[in-house]
Design brief:
255 residues
């Protein structure tokens, strides 16, 4: 179910939310017209207020979760960039020919990451990327082992920075799979539809349509839902994680 939900674009889901809210408002207005309220009689106001407050809390909670996931992806990319930079710095302290061999491998590894479309990888592409990383780690490990055999004094630092490159790569890959559970999106849908219905019912019972206010409510809620879902869809969303840190590392290697 989660995978199916992920394949649906955030804009389409937001449009469905908006249509559902407008339809609920209209149904509520029709029902309110059938049961008009007397002047001063407003027993349902507290339910409308409570449902709107609950919707606001749920929107804030869901947006916070989505934003946290986006921040984790951004932090993971920065951590991986720093790990690659540290490993490259250690490699510059080796004697030839190990220095050049390791620098070439690290440079190729970093350039491939810059070109890699993190947000658009399919399952098969992720498997191929994992295999490529494993081959790169194997080659780097072999050179570090040779440097250790040559008696380099920084063998421990080389091993630690290489391990850090591998761990941050796994951390970044895992961060791109962080999702808000689909059940929360369903709950958000219900929380958005119910107050729209109650607002329409109240307006119908009073015989007054506040079109601008109702539309503004739907537009604002839909916009918040779109941004939240877009943040929560790293493989499809418009909001992307910057690769500036990786690009700076590659640029420093090319100088």
């Amino acid at each position: 179910m989660q995978d199916s939900f992920e394949r649906v674009d955030a804009s389409l889901i937001s449009i469905i939310f908006a249509i559902a809210m407008l339809a609920s408002w209209f149904l509520g207005w029709r029902r309110g017209r059938r049961f008009p309220s007397l002047p001063g009689d407003d027993p349902d106001a507290k339910f409308i207020d409570a449902s709107v407050v609950l919707l606001g809390l749920l929107l804030a909670f869901t947006f916070s979760m989505a934003l946290q996931g986006h921040d984790q992806r951004r932090s993971a990319v920065v951590a991986e960039s720093n790990a690659i930079s540290d490993f490259y710095t250690c490699a510059t302290l080796l004697n030839e020919p190990r220095r050049s061999e390791l620098q070439v491998l690290i440079g190729d590894y970093a350039r491939q990451l810059v070109k890699l479309p993190f947000e658009e990888l399919t399952t098969q592409q992720e498997k191929e990327e994992n295999q490529r990383c494993l081959r790169a780690y194997s080659q780097m490990t072999a050179i570090v082992d040779k440097a250790d055999a040559d008696g380099t004094p920084i063998a421990l630092a080389l091993v630690n920075t290489l391990n850090n490159v591998a761990s941050t790569n796994a951390l970044r890959a895992a961060a791109y799979h962080i999702r808000t559970p689909w059940s929360i999106a369903v709950l958000l849908f219900v929380a958005a539809v119910v107050p729209a219905f109650l607002i329409g019912e109240k307006q119908g019972a009073r015989g007054k349509i506040h079109l601008s206010g109702s539309l503004s409510f739907v537009v604002i809620v839909t916009a918040v839902i779109f941004v939240t879902l877009d943040l929560d869809q790293p493989h499809r969303g418009m909001i992307k994680v910057s690769r500036e840190s990786l690009e700076r590392v590659v640029h420093s290697m090319d100088r």
